[in-house]
Design goal:
Blueprint (H helix, E strand, L loop, with lengths): L1 E5 L3 H13 L3 E5 L2 H10 L4 E5 L7 H10 L5 E6 L4 H9 L4 E4 L4 H31 L10 H13 L6 E4 L6 H11 L7 E5 L5 H9 L16 H4 L4 E5 L6 H13 L1 E2 L8 E2 L3 E6 L3 H6 L5 H7 L2 E4 L10 H16 L5 E2 L1 H9 L5 H15 L4 E2 L6 H4 L17 H19 L4 H8 L3 H11 L5
Parallel strand pairs: 1-2, 1-3, 3-4, 4-5, 6-11, 6-12, 7-8, 8-11, 13-14
Antiparallel strand pairs: 9-10
Length: 454
């Protein structure tokens, strides 16, 4: 990592240069804020160590001008006793961390190692995004794993044809998204895409929804009604949860697929439809066929091209680019800037097994955006299930577990900190004194527990 040290004390600059050079860092120096700003904007640095109080240009003004000039390095403020408030103000402006003066060598190295880990994770996400950009076919689809890329290759190959496609995989893996992509890439892409969840509509109504009905076909049928097959004619009909289709309707669906004709409920005439059918299920249809819960002939008619979407636990390399993509989509909808993710929160997101797959990941990120009070998602902003999740054997999350002693202690500590802040009207120095800890310790605990205000 390349570091820039900005401080008007020559002795401190020399000490830091010797210490950090021995640890393998490449170190540059600047004797004041103006020179440091010019150097920081002219050359690429990973981290800038900047003093808060300097005669020509203070650390807070340096940070504002550096960010305004497009500087992207992590900025760590160095503050003498009595200037912690200035350091905290700088962090609100976007500084990564601060180190109080005088400091020990191990304190500096600890902060820098944390920064190094954060940069490593950031570069990992960027590289995955770059890989994604060269293979993904739609902004809605994020994939870098070999299994998902293979699935997308099959979609691209089968899209030009009217062949029926069966999408399988656990709930939440994005089967409808893939079906929409197949439709988009097909010659029918400008026509209707109609989706129906076969498990969500009562059996008594499903036939009418799929095939339509004529006036007087049943009580309440006061007029003719076009079904979803007719609505999708010329386009694509997506039958989700096809494994839950009632047995009586399976024969009628098979006839529609084979003959390209449907008959409205209560009608004697048939109607031609030109529909490309894509079906999806989280069930094991072959097992259902063996148990006579699903027609064998319909299964083979649907299973002309089968595409399996693996769960996220089988493709963890897709999680980082998914996080970036989903955050951007949620933030666009919510009308807010995309926040940073602090390393602890990112590590929790990467370590969790996501039994609910992409849908659960999307919901967790939306929740974090709603509850966070700043421009950085903290670990505390994530759902408790994510923070308590582990990868068990085979990459699956373990079942919900009772709260550990460490978690209980953390909750009690956070409650005590909030109470101290309320009692002191948010004065962190007084709150630290009440808690019997240093201001610096309090500051780190505020970050650890994601506490923004009293």
């Amino acid at each position: 990592m390349r570091l820039l040290v900005i401080d008007d004390e020559p002795g401190l600059r020399q000490s830091l240069r010797l210490l950090l050079s021995e640890e393998g860092f490449e170190v540059a120096e600047a004797a004041d804020g103006e020179k440091g700003l010019a150097l920081a904007l002219a050359e690429p640095f990973d981290v800038v160590l900047c003093d808060v109080r300097m005669p020509s240009l203070g650390g807070l003004d340096f940070l504002r001008r550096y960010r305004g000039g497009g500087g992207s390095a992590l900025v760590i403020m160095m503050s003498a006793y009595g200037s912690e408030d200035a350091a905290i103000a700088a962090m609100k402006e976007g500084a990564y961390d601060y180190i109080p003066k005088p400091f020990r060598a191990d304190e500096v190295l600890l902060v820098l190692r944390k920064a190094e880990e954060r940069e490593r994770l950031r570069r990992e996400v960027e590289s995955l995004r770059s890989a994604l950009g060269s293979r993904a076919t739609s902004p809605q689809i994020v994939a870098v794993s070999e299994t998902m890329l293979n699935a997308l290759d099959v979609v691209a190959k089968v899209a030009p044809h009217t062949t029926t496609v069966l999408l399988t995989g656990p709930s939440g893996t994005g089967k409808e998204v893939l079906a929409r992509e197949l439709h988009r890439l097909s010659p029918r892409g400008e026509r209707a895409f109609v989706a129906v969840n076969c498990a969500a509509i009562p059996e008594a109504l499903l036939e009418s929804e799929l095939f339509g009905h004529v006036r007087g076909a049943f009580t309440g049928a006061v007029g003719d009604h076009r079904g979803l097959f007719e609505e999708a004619s010329g386009g694509t009909l997506f039958l989700d949860e096809i494994g839950d289709l009632p047995t009586g309707l399976q024969a009628k669906l098979l006839r529609a697929l084979q003959d390209g004709e449907i008959r409205r409920v209560g009608d004697r005439a048939t109607r031609r439809v030109d529909v490309r059918v894509v079906a999806a299920t989280a069930r094991d249809l072959e097992a259902d066929v063996a148990d006579r819960r699903f027609r064998e002939d319909l299964f083979y008619r649907l299973n002309v091209v089968a595409i399996r979407l693996p769960p996220l636990s089988e493709r963890p390399e897709d999680i980082p680019p998914l996080i970036g993509n989903l955050l951007e989509r949620h933030c666009t909808r919510l009308g807010r800037a995309v926040p940073r993710i602090e390393p602890g929160a990112l590590r929790a997101l990467l370590d969790y097994a996501w039994p609910g797959n992409v849908r659960e990941l999307s919901n967790a990120l939306e929740r974090a955006l709603v509850v966070t009070r700043g421009d950085t998602i903290q670990a505390a902003d994530l759902p408790p299930s994510v923070l308590g999740g582990e990868r068990g054997s085979g990459g699956m999350a373990r079942a919900s577990r009772p709260m550990t002693l460490k978690q209980r202690e953390g909750g009690a500590e956070a409650a005590a900190i909030r109470e101290a802040l309320r009692a002191t009207d948010g004065n962190r120095r007084e709150a630290a004194a009440r808690l019997g800890i240093s201001v610096r310790s309090l500051f780190y605990k505020l970050k650890e527990h994601g506490i923004r205000d009293a």
